[in-house]
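Thread amino acids onto this structure.
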């Protein structure tokens, strides 16, 4: 899997792609990118799965781990542009434990704004 990153004003965007030849894939790319995003100081991490046909081994568990880790620190992790095949893989996780899934980046922004408002008023 290849992970591209874009630092946005209020969030950290990760774009996942599995169109990289298997010989050139870095098994730790997602972990490294999520670790870096967690230390970015941004309030939200958006994971764009539009170039992802299937999840690599352990990716669902890694996304879940970082979702909970970030949530404990008042940050959001949201998945968007998730294909039906990837959604099916994520649906195998307990719904309460998996990261939220939204349709697109605009929905990710709205979701995160709503989450931050909810946390402030709590």
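Threaded sequence (122 positions):
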């Amino acid at each position: 899997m290849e992970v591209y990153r874009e630092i946005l004003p209020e969030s950290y965007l990760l774009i996942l792609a599995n169109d990289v030849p298997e010989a050139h894939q870095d098994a730790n790319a997602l972990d490294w990118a999520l670790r870096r995003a967690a230390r970015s100081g941004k309030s939200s991490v958006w994971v764009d799965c539009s170039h992802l046909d299937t999840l690599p081994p352990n990716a669902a568990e890694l996304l879940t781990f970082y979702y909970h880790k970030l949530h404990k620190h008042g940050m959001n992790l949201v998945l968007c542009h998730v294909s039906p095949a990837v959604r099916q893989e994520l649906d195998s996780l307990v719904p309460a434990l998996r990261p939220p899934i939204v349709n697109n980046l605009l929905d990710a922004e709205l979701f995160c704004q709503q989450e931050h408002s909810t946390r402030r008023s709590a």
